[in-house]
Amino acid sequence: MSSSYFNYTNSPCAACKFLRRKCTSDCVFAPYFPPEEPTKFANVHRIFGASNVSKILQEVAPHQREDAVNSLAYEAEARLRDPVYGCVGAISVLQRQVLGLQRELEETNADIMRYASYLGGETASVYGDRRG
Amino acid sequence: MSQIKTIHNPIGSIERFLDLLLISLIVYMTLKGGTSGACAACKYQRRRCAADCPLAPYFPAEQPKLFQNVHRLFGVRSIVKILENLDEVQRPEAMKSIIFQSYVRDRNPVHGCLGITQQLQYMIWVAEEELKAVNSQLQLYRNGQNHPNPHNMMIHEIGEKQEDLTSQLDLGMGLPVNTNQGNNTIPFFSPVSETQQLQQPQHMSYCSEVNNNHDYNPTPESCKEVLNNHNNTSLAWGQSQFPYNHHHNYGFMNQNEHCSETKNNNSVMAIQSQLVNLQMASNQQEEEVDVHNYDEIHQFLEIIDESQSFTETKEVYASSSGESSKEPIDEIGEKELRRAATCFSLTSVN
């Protein structure tokens, strides 16, 4: 990213290339859409639109813009792959995994409780024998 | 004078006519808004809502914020284009996911749904680590049944480790973040108070999507793994290192962002915890996960619909439900661990 930041004066950023406009020194997209990744901007533009992305970047603090762009790129790609559910499909999958794991944990903990009570009973009987 | 009177009368009648016209127009608009009503989309765009407005079924007039969020992220043209390429059956589902995505982006403008994905990946990692520890504990118990005395010591040692894990989880220390800049990061759903700073362990194993990766790395790359598994297609630009973590800690918020993100975290967690509770209550036995099973994703979206409130009191919703519903997810894991740890200390009799 840092190399593209310094190179944007040499070649237009992916956004300006896509939009066929001059990439100025104050281009808001240049730091985040390097010319080596044309698909990134193409996806984002196709789903969200350049003006929306620009507005989102303006609303976000400068040190957070890279994260914002990356998350938008992720969501755009997800939406292109799955026009119905987009990234929400992946969230649903993960949610199911979490639930499955939590269920498994409960069952395993229940087993441990059973063993613990069994061993506790054994220990108590040992104590009883020793005292007796 | 009589001429003046005759002049004034037509003007007066015109005024009266205009008044009547205005009143009827107002009545008409009121009636239109009261009965069929312009949808939120058309209201926002200040245009007439046609009978065949494609967005009207999804954006009721009484929930303007829904459309505002969607408009801010996607834009009208994009939504219409998405809808046009889908079947009638798929359109409601697509709109639900778009509305959800926009809502999440509104609450978390920086990370959006990617933040939730990473949060869930972290939860999976934590659950897997717990499961590993608990399974090893269980194995010891099973072995201890056959050979009770030598293993009591081992159980005691494992119990201590379990207590360490419990105390780590208590303090939210389960996040193995490599701090490039030495900043402390706080996981989304740490049970501790929000201002507590934590020292993170450096290396933990992560046995979920990326099996060979021994450093926990909830980057968008690992999220892209989920997309890969979800769709079985290769990524468009997966060859280059995703720049997400270039200057930041892995995945989660920097401390600088923490305070501003707290409410967002709470609301996202509120949604998630409600989802967990609702799904656990209603979920059937699912042996295999079919990632292309739209019925299950549909169920997920139905639950989102029921649990989300898009009224103007959403802040109240977030603040009131955030703390109380933050409890369930954490309580499930913590209570079980504490119970298990207590058992170990009780049973470690010498």
UniProtKB/TrEMBL annotation, chain A:
This is LOB domain-containing protein 25. PANTHER family: GENOME ASSEMBLY, CHROMOSOME: A06, LOB DOMAIN-CONTAINING PROTEIN 4-RELATED. InterPro entries: LOB. Residues 11-112 form the LOB domain. Belongs to the LOB domain-containing protein family. It comes from the Eukaryota.
From TrEMBL, chain B:
Residues 324-333 have a biased composition (Basic and acidic residues). Residues 312-333 are annotated as: Disordered. Pfam families: LOB (PF03195). InterPro entries: LOB. PANTHER family: LOB DOMAIN-CONTAINING PROTEIN 27-RELATED (PTHR31301:SF21), LOB DOMAIN-CONTAINING PROTEIN 4-RELATED (PTHR31301). Belongs to the LOB domain-containing protein family. This is LOB domain-containing protein 27. It comes from Raphanus sativus.
